[in-house]
Amino acid sequence: MKEKLIIVESPSKAKAIQSYLGEGHTVVSSKGHIRDLATSGKGGLGIDVDADFEPTYQVIRGKQTLINDLKKQAKSRDVLIATDQDREGEAIAWHIAQVLNLDIQQENRVVFSEITKQKILEAVKKPRKIDTGLVSSQETRRMLDRIIGFKLSTLLQSKIKSKSAGRVQSVALKLIVDLEKEIQAFVPKTYFDLEATYQGMKAEYSKNKDQFDKASSDAILKEATNPFTISKLEVNEKPRHSKEAFKTSTLQRDAYNYLGYSSTRTMMLAQFLYEGIEMKGETTGLITYMRTDVTRLSNEFVDDAMSYIQQNYGPQYLGKYQTTKDQNAQDAHEGIRPTNVVYTPEYVKANVDKTSIKDEKLFDDALKLYARIYGRTLASLMAPAILEHTKVTFTSNHHDFNMKGVRLLFDGFLKVYEESKNKDILLPKFHQGDTITMDDVVSIEKQTQPKPRYNEASMIKKLDELGIGRPSTYASIIKTLIDRGYVTKEKNLQPTEQGILTSDELDKFFKDIINIDYTAEMEANLDKVSEGNHDKLNILKTFYEMFIPMLDNAKVNMKKIQPVMLEETCPECGSQLVIRKSKYGEFIACSGFPKCRYIKKDEVPSDS
């Protein structure tokens, strides 16, 4: 039998798969993409717009030696391409097939959702053809991003000294800027909040407090005096159901809210867990592929997990497997789950080969993320928790104060998964008709608050809800906005002056394409291309015919920001010095450029 050459993306993944397959197989890595659109041709796009948007590809710098080596190794072997199972991975597989002159009608593509011996051996036995629909969708996306990125970025750099623009990036920026304008325009309103305190627990006045002025609240304080009567006691049992397994966006949000990880770090740690660790002498992937839009779990895993729950927690903890109704049960993609239900976080920590861990901090953080993934997945298959919800109404002289709390009757899925760090309020036993003495009744002056700024988690949630971009791109979108100086990130995402200027100018001249609806519709159309239900050329032509007139108008009518003049002269030619901007930031230089190329080495004044 002919030896097989298996090409994956990641070097660490290649090492693990090689150990599973053994003799007769050589596993090598492409180290990601090997080709991209050229930067030659009209406008440096690498796209011949006049020839039905024919792309020209070139080898990525530094990859030619790798390609030559792949060609040599492929000569005497059957080639299987095992890049990631998403749209980007399919495109990488197609490019590899192109440079190796492989027949894309042949079944030379394998995919797997987890890096475990069983799944790898199964995948190698079931190769398929490269999915040209996915490739076409990725190619369309790449060309759209290249056209917008190159042409808009060039325009903004020349006009307002902004570093870049992007099809999805600029819509995300607009969301942040629009919210900031809403916050700045917000006019706070003063109101008085009335609270009664009993044994450290607070009861809130039951009526609409934001209508109260100080005189109204003071009048209530005079009347709401001890003793108070428990006039109403409402007790209800309610189930609290677990959430579905993680998908990319919900994992990023949970890791930010619960562990404090940025979306970029979360994806890096998830990649580490996916590619695997050394346990008992074998590299084992701990989670399934982490770039996914679905929460579906395989029937095999569900069966194993249900048995595990029954054996380890008891039949009363068994739940029902539920997934979003519009998800195709035949979809090869799964949610993010453990590869084996036996691999508890404790098991992993106890069995990892500690000599293989080069970065203890990385491993510790990854294990914390793994614990969230493991707990969430198991919880999704467990029985709901049962909580007793209690609402107590305390009354004094016809004034009602409400106190709410819960009591856990059955922990259910909460036995393995803590949903949030917010703790439920546990109330003592109250009886209707009893009288109590409040420790204090106070009026607190407050102000209505504007909407909170986005943090990484809420930004990802918003993008996901609106259908803008794809979960695999959310981390890079946020990182790009920060790196370009459009947004600052302390606790929250706040636009800079340059970010606001950039968004405003794009909204002024490109509002028909840099907006939520158009971007979400484009994402939907790209999905249709992957399914064979939309024409790639039609998307590109329609977009281009809409975009170019806008660009031409902006070139003429967008105002160019002039350098800031300083009251200081150039020591070389006597011309006035100015503050200029470059992609590296602001600097002081001669206004006589290009005749005089003087640049001051001192820092730009802080008040500039």
Model description:
Helices cover 39% and strands 19% of the residues. The relative contact order is 0.13. Helix 5 runs antiparallel to helix 16. With 608 residues, the chain is of the alpha+beta class. A seven-stranded antiparallel beta sheet has the order 15-10-13-14-9-8-16, with helices on one face. The N and C termini lie far apart (72 Å). It contains 17 helices and 21 strands. It has five domains: 4-130, 3-Layer(aba) Sandwich (Rossmann fold), CATH 3.40.50.140; 160-185 and 471-557, Topoisomerase I, domain 2 (Orthogonal Bundle), CATH 1.10.460.10; 190-241 and 384-447, Topoisomerase I, domain 3; 248-379, Topoisomerase I, domain 4 (Orthogonal Bundle), CATH 1.10.290; 563-608, no CATH class. The model is unreliable at 326-331 and 604-608 (pLDDT under 50).
Question: What distinguishing features does this structure have?
Answer:
Topoisomerase I, domain 3; seven-stranded antiparallel β-sheet; Rossmann fold; single chain; Topoisomerase I, domain 2; flat; 608 residues; disordered C terminus; alpha+beta; 39% helix; three-stranded parallel β-sheet
